[in-house]
Amino acid sequence: MDMKFKKTKGLTLIELLVALAISGILMAAIYRTFLSQYKTYTVQEQVVDMQQNARVAINRMMREIRMAGFGNVSDVLDLPGGVNGFTNVIIANDNSITIIGGFRQISTLAADAAAGQNKITLANANDGSQFDGAAHHRYISIGGLESHIVQSRIEADLTLDSNYPLKLRHPVGTPIFKIHAIRYGLRDDDGVPVLFRDLYPNTVSSQRDTVAENIENVQFEYLDASANPTTIPANIRMVKVTVTARTSTYDPEFKGGTGGFRRRTIASNVNVRNMEANP
After folding, report:
1. Of all residues in the chain, what percent carry a pLDDT higher than 90?
2. Is the dihedral of CA 202, 203, 204, 207 positive or negative?
3. CA-wise closest residue to 56 among 248, 272, 214
4. Which domain, by its residues, includes 234?
5. Band of the pLDDT at 33, cuts 50, 70, 90?
6. Residue 61: what pLDDT?
7. Are 49 and 262 in contact (CB under 8 A)?
8. Residue 150: inside a domain, yes or no?
9. Backbone phi, then psi, for 163, in 5-degree steps?
10. Which residues contact 62 (CB under 8 A, 6 or more apart)?
């Protein structure tokens, strides 16, 4: 029995080259699409981070600026030396701001405190460590109603300046706030512009912490009760804060901004609610 074999035809060299060329074109198109989508994703991620940085920066500042002057801090600001050398609730500059207030509750009274006395007792002995004798650890507000300088302490017992005894009676459980100065401004951190929060400025124990990175500009505008610009600290009733953030890396193909950085600007106004009590 004769067997017949079917002759099969393979690819010619030209057909193989054409197939490879088409495959190469397709792969190049897919790769370009991938690069485009990856770049879009990266840009969107950087823009989201930039916007988040701007919001974090402005929200943190607004919360504390709103509290400026809380604790009737004029009592201690009027004393020689003020608070860390500051004698106004707000020290106003175009690109930085320093605020004074009882920003943090640290304890409560363990016993009633009568008007005229110059000693109080905190509810917890450990809370007394907030007043360790350093220049910036001695300003206190009792109930947010009056402020004093702590002259000395023994555990939870605080002795106030005898020349300035308590003005009011304060019952047990009255909250105790620590008064200090806070400064916000910009600095360069190895080429990265950052917004800093300086706790205890003007002292050797200054704590200049980073609030947000890639904050390129911050501007403060100060307004009086009639919404007119003012440079007089006692007349400030509103602060307008403008923050400009930029992306963490530059894009050489982006032509919409200086240096290839994308930028976002956020502005907000805050009423300084305690200024009328601290002329």
Report:
1. 55
2. negative
3. 214
4. 56-277
5. confident
6. 92
7. no
8. yes
9. -80, -15
10. 241, 268, 270
